[in-house]
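Researcher: Re-running this chain for the archive, since the previous output was lost when a drive failed. Same request as before.
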Amino acid sequence: MGSWRFFLALVLVAAGCGPSFQVVYESDVHFEHCYALDQSDAPIPSKRDCWKAWLHAYTYGEPRDRVDYASSRFSALSPNDPPSSRMVAASTARKPSPAVDAPVPTNAFAPPPNIASAVATTDSGAGPPVAGLPRTPGVDCVDACASAWTSCRTGCRAAGCAPCDQAYRTCMPACFVDKKSATQ
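Model: Regenerated structure tokens:
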């Protein structure tokens, strides 16, 4: 009987250790306010002061990406200040994350952009092979068909391009014929 009371007390104590809903809510509201101010025509000192206040008072319980973003915005808005005078939250004192070339968010309700290394692909879905990943079935054949179609279309005019399109239509299905079942 006593062990479940100890467990219940332990759970209640652990639940009280994180940031409260009120703290998280106020931090989110202030972050969104600074973000909206950043997108407006407000003067730069107002934007800088907003991010400085957020870094100073609202970083507890916030994800690292938000703290890093706020810190980078504050730094970008303070180009004339020496680095020693810039206010940086204690939680950002660790090693900064690598810079990522990602578009600036334009809509708070849109999902974040994919920042993973993307493989350059052609319209056929083919692309350079990536170590450890299998290639799409028939991709070499599809690339050959697309290459033949492209070279054929470069030398023709609108009415004379029908043979190129027909050759492409004939070539593509052959890329996806199961060779095992075709021989049986």
